[in-house]
Design a protein that fits this description.
Distance between the termini: 72 Å
CATH class of the largest domain: Alpha Beta
Helix content: 40-55%
CATH architecture of the largest domain: 3-Layer(aba) Sandwich
Largest sheet: 5 strands, parallel
Number of helices: 12
Bound molecules: thiamine diphosphate, magnesium ion
CATH superfamily of the largest domain: Thiamin diphosphate (ThDP)-binding fold, Pyr/PP domains
Oligomer: single chain
Number of strands: 9
Order of helices and strands: EEHHEHHHHEHEEEEHEHHHH
Amino acid sequence: MSMTLTARTTQDPVQLIDAQGVRLADETYDPLVADITDERLTSLYEDMVLVRRLDTEATALQRQGELGLWPPLLGQEAAQVGSARALRADDFVFSSYRENGVAFCRGVELVDLARAWRGTSASGWDPFSVGMATPAVIIGAQTLHATGYALGCARDGVDSAAVAYFGDGATSQGDVNEAMVFAASFHAPVVFFCQNNQWAISEPVGLQAVRPIADRAPGFGIPSVRVDGNDVLAVAAVTREALERARSGGGPSFIEAVTYRMGPHTTSDDPTRYVDPLQREEWAGRDPLARVEAYLDLSADERARIAARSDEVAAEFRSACKALVEPHPLSLFDNVYAEPHSGLERQRSRYAAYLRGFES
Ligand SMILES: Cc1ncc(C[n+]2csc(CCOP(=O)(O)OP(=O)(O)O)c2C)c(N)n1
Ligand SMILES: [Mg+2]
């Protein structure tokens, strides 16, 4: 497993394993991943295989009418696993709907993930048990939550960090820009982790960003880095660097993980109407799993063990999903306020009367 020295400009994404599986030496980032031996890289690879299998199963479950919706993360496994595995348990993640691979790494129970996307709970899981808030569907809102949480960490005097995950499209949203202003002004220990998957639904990134997205952050006073988002090792390295900055009082960082959304925006989308198949094919050649497979050259036994484990995860997810009990419609009104609320009570009783109209 040879190393080739790479020369990098500020525009070039950080890359430690290229698309062919060649390990590239990098004097800045190699020390940050010196402890990631082949054994630990195999573990990251296993995570990516499991996450991909889970994603495929979830997409199939939606097609079979078992999930209400699923936002596939096919192609973005390295960005999610590499960053999530760089976190400590006491760090806190604020994500969008796309980060189901991050949720898996944080230890969100499969049944909780299923209930969020089957729509049998108003939320999904207890955020404090896994250090990850439930997904934000309001584009970019979670960057403000992360910044506020990070300021809380600083005031508590702990060295935990908050990480906000969001997409390329979200960087044009006001919330994200406001979050960066606050984070920079108050040195919040927050990492802005942008997965540039080249699309905001059907809008290509070039329509809203004439320069690399990472270039926006320095204008707010936030250091930024572009990383090959399909290179799990490089993603781990830049995330560790950003976390270290946050922990040591260096304030916020911005990471642009350059990747590609290989599937639809969600299961409600038909990307064949706007994706150029040649572009997709080009990105297929940069697959995040294939390059680690080429680099590690795993034995057939090891591959079989990982494949079997991934089938177990998929089966567990499927059975947990199908066993979920449909909630009573009136449960929608539970847990909205901690104390009785007359306006809500009025709505509840009207809705109860409406439901009674269906009783024969
Ligand atoms: C405030 C807000 N505006 C619009 C939408 C509709 N919407 C849902 S996903 C999406 C595109 C987001 O793209 P990006 O930030 O790149 O994330 P990706 O889906 O690619 O992961 C939009 C506009 C929304 N959910 N919230
Ligand atoms: Mg996007």
